[in-house]
Amino acid sequence: MTLTRRNGRLGGLALALTCSLALSACGGDSSDDEATGPLKELGKTEGQVSILAWPGYVEDGSNDPNADWVSSFEEKTGCKVTSKVYGTSDEAFNLAKSGDYDVVAASGDLTLRMVAAKAAAEVNTDLVPNYEKVFDFLKDQEWNTVDGKNYGVPHGYGANLLMYNSDVVKPAPTSWDVVFDKASEHKGKVTAYDSPIYIADAAMYLMATQPDLGIENPYALDEDQLAAAVDLLKAQRGHVGEYWSDYLKEAQAFKTGDSVVGTTWQVIANTIDQDNVKVTVPEEGVTGWNDTWMISSKSKNPNCAYAWLNHIEDPEINAQATQYFGESPNSQEACDFAEPGFCESYHAGDEAYSDKIWYWRTPIEDCLDGRTDVTCTDYSDWTKAWTEIKG
Predict the structure, then answer these.
(1) For position 103, which CATH number holds?
(2) Beta strands, E only, 144-195
């Protein structure tokens, strides 16, 4: 497996999320076969498994000799791994629908789209023994469980941080205003994540700075609230030098000074060996991810797929994988294998801290903040808005 550098592609979404993401496929045909339920028991492994994942989630030592949890899986199960990385959840959704992948690592802005499109299989967690070790507050979440049915198992969780060049951005920023209201101070060197879900970052900032808008959940925006977020992002657009989805390109832009401030992941900061590139959690809070390993409804290798889910939930493997990427492991047992201080710095197992992260969600018409007197905008609205923002 080679970690391929890919540019995320926004493209058009085949799925218009104008329903409440029920199990029936949105815009689908009523003649579609209904799911037959999860696998009841495991059989003989098929000898191969194809995985679609974020960069850094499926490592075999070819990118970093110290990062390899694929080889042990292949030796233990006999399932040879092939993998492909993606840059955004939109790209992953289009790739996953092809049926070419047995397993997909999905963030919360992808999981329910997979379920709604019948692209994800219900998972029998009894066939994933290591699932029992996972922190309870990561289980049965709204972004991977529908009508009491699990559609995957947790990987880890983390935050979308603010990264800045301390030689240029002074004083050290404590607010997201440095990329929004004060973005003109670094015109042409601001960077932002290239995905409609980034609208939630603007909404989160407005929730703190313009309370009169009444935003209570950055993924639950009515038309007026979405319009306010779009206006903020349009104003930011004139100062953005590059929208990023390829994490290696963002790292390079900070190394060269082409970018000096913007949203990032810890894994990106980890690849930049420069003391002047720093990350912080701004006072308004952060969005983030709580990723799920899902099995494709079209998987040709379901036994190897289940074997991979159990492997990545193994505490020692989960510690290695989440530490490499820069996110919290999913169990206390995993922390026993992590480097000293790692779990403390990432607040592993801290449910109160986790509750403060606005994990990626799929916006739907039924407002996620509980409002019933208005209709909220859905992901198709956000996709159209993002195209308009970028021009």
Answers:
(1) 3.40.190.10
(2) 145-146, 149-150, 153-159, 161-165, 190-193
The answer to whether residues 337 and 271 belong to one domain is: no
Nearest partner of 164 among 143, 183, 146, judged by Cα: 183
Pair type for strands 287-295 and 358-359: parallel
pLDDT at res. 36: 64
Q: Look up residue 330 and give its two tokens.
A: 């999913």
Contact 183, 323 (CB under 8 A): no
The pLDDT of residue 24: 31
Number of compact structural domains in the chain: 2
Distances (CA, A) of 49 to 85, 104, 306, 309: 15, 11, 10, 11
- Among residues 381, 302, 1, 299, which one has the least CA distance to residue 128? 302
Average pLDDT of the chain? 89
pLDDT at 8: 28
244-259 mean pLDDT: 94
Q: Which residue has the tokens 């409804």?
A: 297
Q: Name residue 108's amino acid.
A: G
Question: Residue 161 pairs with which residues in a beta bridge?
Answer: 264
The pTM of this model reads 0.81
